């Protein structure tokens, strides 16, 4: 399945909920948000039907997101349904890690293949300031629990904030020195509350890491799977894992974008920046055939914009929802 610019689209990020047990400053307001009713959220059966049709068009990789996906009950049952689809090669998960330790055994049995844990700091007070919750110990316990499941790839995702200390970034990076995990630094996307934060670029973080660990070298992608997305990887002397960068603003990679996003409400988005897309929930609940849904997915992919225009003046049609509603 290709878009009008010849990009092959094989990766779908599926949000299963808009709800979250944290209140990160760049994602949700302190008081939370008005929650979507359960009736507006796709059922697991509806998600699986969309995924099956999309897989028939060439979607081979699926990542489950939120909000926080693990707050939705029995998520492992959805994982089982998705991993059973013939054309789907990989089902992965992104999570804040709070509930991961208590659910990982069920997720592993269901066939989850990789887990991305969002963690911006190892300092308890700073963690509380960013997330407005006191949950760092639970996240660290979950990471320790993951050692019991070596077949599941683990990555840490950090969103560096301007003004963060070099020590903060280096302490996170050191986890990749001691363990075979990837620590990735993701530039803030100016979406929702993220618009209120200045860009902290890849170069700024990398300079700090060099000061502590010395010169980096490009990581050999054959040493470990690079994942579904556009991360570039380096490593440092003595590191068992890798350091990754996802830099959509300072190192624009739209020409290689291979993804679409399905919100928890069933809205298929071809580009993070823009509000355009297709309401697949409406089609599902109006009794649309598989062929009608297939055509809608194919058309949405075909109309995927050439690139985002973050950093320029606001354009008509720019997405106004917070990330918890869009899907992380």
UniProtKB/TrEMBL annotation:
[4Fe-4S] cluster 2 binds at residues 254, 257, 271. Pathway: Cofactor biosynthesis; molybdopterin biosynthesis. Transmembrane segments: none annotated. Its EC number is 4.1.99.22. [4Fe-4S] cluster 1 binds at residues 20, 24, 27. GTP binds at residues 13, 94, 155, 259-261. It comes from the Bacteria. Residues 4-219 form the Radical SAM core domain. The keyword Membrane does not apply. Pfam families: Mob_synth_C (PF06463), Radical_SAM (PF04055). Its cofactor is [4Fe-4S] cluster. Keywords: 4Fe-4S, GTP-binding, Iron, Iron-sulfur, Lyase, Metal-binding, Molybdenum cofactor biosynthesis, Nucleotide-binding, S-adenosyl-L-methionine. It is an enzyme of class 4 (lyase). Binds 2 [4Fe-4S] clusters. Binds 1 [4Fe-4S] cluster coordinated with 3 cysteines and an exchangeable S-adenosyl-L-methionine and 1 [4Fe-4S] cluster coordinated with 3 cysteines and the GTP-derived substrate. The keyword Metal-binding applies. SMART domains: Elp3 (SM00729). S-adenosyl-L-methionine binds at residues 26, 67, 118, 189. It catalyses: GTP + AH2 + S-adenosyl-L-methionine = (8S)-3',8-cyclo-7,8-dihydroguanosine 5'-triphosphate + 5'-deoxyadenosine + L-methionine + A + H(+). Catalyzes the cyclization of GTP to (8S)-3',8-cyclo-7,8-dihydroguanosine 5'-triphosphate. Monomer and homodimer. Belongs to the radical SAM superfamily. MoaA family. This is GTP 3',8-cyclase. It comes from Claveliimonas monacensis. The lineage of its organism: Bacteria, Bacillati, Bacillota, Clostridia, Lachnospirales.
């Amino acid at each position: 399945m290709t878009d009008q610019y010849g990009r092959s689209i094989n990766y779908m990020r599926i949000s299963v909920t808009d709800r979250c047990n944290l209140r990160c400053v760049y994602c949700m307001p302190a008081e939370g948000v008005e929650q979507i009713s359960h009736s507006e959220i796709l059922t697991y059966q509806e998600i699986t039907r969309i995924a099956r049709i999309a897989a028939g068009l060439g979607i081979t990789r699926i990542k489950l997101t939120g909000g926080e996906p693990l707050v939705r009950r029995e998520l492992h049952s959805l994982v089982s349904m998705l991993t059973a689809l013939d054309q789907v090669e990989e089902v992965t998960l992104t999570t804040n890690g709070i509930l991961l330790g208590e659910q990982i055994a069920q997720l592993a049995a269901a066939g989850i293949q990789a887990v991305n844990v969002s963690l911006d700091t190892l300092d308890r007070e700073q963690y509380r300031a960013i997330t407005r919750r006191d949950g760092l110990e639970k996240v660290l316990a979950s990471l320790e629990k993951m050692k019991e499941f070596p077949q599941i790839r683990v990555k840490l995702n950090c969103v560096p904030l301007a003004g963060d200390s070099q020590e903060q970034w280096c302490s996170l990076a050191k986890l990749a020195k001691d363990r075979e995990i990837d620590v990735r630094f993701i530039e803030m996307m100016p979406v929702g509350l993220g618009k209120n934060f200045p860009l902290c670029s890849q170069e700024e973080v990398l300079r700090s890491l060099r000061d502590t660990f010395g010169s980096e070298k490009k990581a050999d992608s054959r040493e470990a799977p690079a994942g579904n997305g556009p991360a570039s990887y380096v490593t440092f002397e003595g590191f068992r894992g890798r350091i990754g960068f996802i830099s959509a603003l300072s190192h624009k990679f739209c020409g290689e974008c291979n993804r679409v996003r399905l919100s928890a409400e069933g809205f298929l988005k071809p580009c993070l920046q823009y509000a355009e897309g297709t309401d697949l929930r409406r089609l599902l609940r109006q009794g649309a055939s598989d062929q009608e849904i297939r055509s809608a997915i194919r058309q949405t992919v075909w109309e995927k914009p050439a690139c985002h225009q973050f950093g320029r003046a606001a354009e008509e049609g720019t997405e106004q929802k917070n990330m918890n509603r869009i899907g992380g």
